[in-house]
């Protein structure tokens, strides 16, 4: 992990007191970066950003899936409220409710020039024109998703954004390290390389604590490390261009991801490996630099109100998150006592909700689905979890409780242990109160998918 002191940056741009804002994000990363203690993955550019910025060690998404997590990140509202309870593409067809406001539109209302380059997965709108109108961007180039061309397009557009006397908001999304099909994949396997990446075991391979250490797992992790290294190189291009343009000092630079790694019992699960996210923020002119590290619980819904507060705007009472701007400014900031996570639909209906405190995690399961949804996207699974997954144990129990201090891999369900009955009761009450207060549709019963309505309408028209 880099330990060098903060770099010096000079602001040579417009004299507005409001900073520029850049949010870079990628798919399926979790905290799989060198700066988070992963010694076998090569991520020098993002490690350097963390060494020169502020790293959050306990940042969590609201949902362990692509679209719902991003919908929360960019609206500051939980998926079951903003309308994105599942994937937005194809016949999954979930979408933001018409009244939902995106960070891009909110900042444009504040006089910012706004641009979206690369991945977006928070809206069903698909053409650049539709996305610009729906989300509030002046410029959209969402036709590419792979990290290299996205980073080059972002670099090209930054030159235009720094001109003039108004601050800008740039949102950059990378596909990698999402799984993608490739000609080198074994039958029944979808790996991480596509046809343009190479595996990377140059620093070795480390298997996450919740997975079995097998030869096939090591092969898969080497692929993942290659995809992450490629993404880091793309992020480095954008960071280097900010420096070259003299824009680094007056720019709030945010790097994060949607959710955890696309490995069994991580992505598409409410265990910590599914909900954990990298979150690195740097703003040299604001003093958010120097390699600071915070261990306070932070939720993705907190980022939007934080950024709005930083540019002198208020998020409004409808936003579920709360600004952690005081924490960034070195001021007193009451610590979050809990974060909440959820999943409703992904590949199939699997409604789950959770509350996570400093010490414990309670998961409530509302269907008898398999114990975890497999994000391997193939028939063959090269990584296998340590927990038993055959027989009756392969289905959800009603409730799960984990002691995160004694059992960080969440392998032992403590529901039913008399010594933990009080914790189960306390967290159950808090989770139920949150669901009721935020008008979670699960309170009233099962949630119907957009495909259900489409199919029923087709039958009625026949």
Automatic annotation (TrEMBL):
<feature type="domain" description="Sulfatase N-terminal">
    <location>
        <begin position="19"/>
        <end position="312"/>
    </location>
</feature>
<dbReference type="InterPro" id="IPR017850">
    <property type="entry name" value="Alkaline_phosphatase_core_sf"/>
</dbReference>
<dbReference type="InterPro" id="IPR000917">
    <property type="entry name" value="Sulfatase_N"/>
</dbReference>
<dbReference type="GO" id="GO:0004065">
    <property type="term" value="F:arylsulfatase activity"/>
</dbReference>
<dbReference type="InterPro" id="IPR050738">
    <property type="entry name" value="Sulfatase"/>
</dbReference>
<protein>
    <submittedName>
        <fullName>Arylsulfatase A</fullName>
    </submittedName>
</protein>
<dbReference type="Pfam" id="PF00884">
    <property type="entry name" value="Sulfatase"/>
</dbReference>
<comment type="similarity">
    <text>Belongs to the sulfatase family.</text>
</comment>
<keyword id="KW-0378">Hydrolase</keyword>
């Amino acid at each position: 992990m880099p330990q060098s002191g903060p770099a010096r940056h000079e602001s040579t741009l417009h004299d507005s007191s409001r900073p520029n804002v850049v949010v870079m994000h990628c798919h399926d990363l979790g905290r799989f970066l060198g700066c988070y203690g992963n010694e076998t993955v090569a991520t020098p550019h993002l490690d350097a950003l963390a060494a020169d910025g502020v790293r959050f060690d306990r940042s969590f998404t609201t949902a362990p899936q692509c679209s719902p997590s991003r919908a929360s990140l960019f609206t500051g509202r939980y998926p079951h409220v903003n309308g994105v309870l599942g994937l937005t593409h194809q016949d999954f067809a979930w979408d933001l409710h018409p009244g939902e406001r995106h960070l891009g539109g909110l900042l444009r209302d504040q006089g910012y020039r706004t641009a979206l380059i690369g991945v977006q997965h928070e809206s069903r709108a698909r053409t650049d024109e539709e996305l610009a109108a729906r989300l509030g961007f002046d410029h959209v180039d969402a036709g590419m998703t792979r990290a290299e061309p996205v980073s080059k397009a972002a670099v090209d557009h930054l030159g235009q954004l720094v001109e003039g006397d108004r601050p800008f908001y740039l949102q950059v999304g990378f596909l990698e390290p999402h799984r993608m099909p490739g000609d080198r994949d074994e039958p029944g396997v979808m790996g991480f390389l596509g046809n343009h990446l190479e595996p990377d075991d140059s620093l070795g391979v480390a298997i996450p604590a919740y997975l079995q250490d097998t030869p096939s797992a090591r092969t898969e992790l080497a692929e993942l490390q290659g995809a992450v290294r490629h993404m880091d190189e793309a992020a480095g291009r954008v960071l280097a261009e900010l420096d070259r343009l003299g824009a680094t000092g007056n720019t709030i630079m945010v790097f994060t991801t949607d959710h955890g790694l696309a490995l069994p019992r991580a992505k598409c699960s409410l265990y910590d490996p599914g909900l954990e996210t990298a979150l690195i923020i740097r703003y040299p002119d604001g003093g958010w630099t120097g390699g600071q590290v915070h261990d306070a619980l932070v939720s993705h819904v907190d980022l939007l109100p934080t950024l709005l507060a930083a540019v002198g705007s208020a998020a409004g009472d409808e936003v579920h998150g709360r600004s952690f701007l005081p924490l960034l400014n070195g001021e007193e900031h009451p610590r979050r006592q809990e974060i909440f996570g959820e999943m409703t639909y992904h590949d199939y209906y699997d409604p789950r909700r959770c509350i996570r405190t400093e010490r414990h995690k309670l998961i409530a399961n509302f269907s008898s689905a398999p114990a975890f949804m497999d994000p391997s996207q193939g028939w063959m699974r090269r990584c296998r979890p340590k927990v038993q997954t055959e027989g009756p144990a392969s289905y959800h129990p009603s409730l799960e409780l984990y002691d995160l201090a004694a059992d960080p891999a969440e392998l032992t369900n403590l529901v039913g242990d008399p010594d933990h009955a009080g914790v189960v009761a306390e967290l159950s009450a808090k989770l139920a109160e949150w669901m009721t207060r935020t008008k979670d549709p699960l309170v009233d019963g099962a949630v119907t998918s957009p495909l259900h309505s489409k199919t029923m309408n087709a039958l009625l028209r026949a």
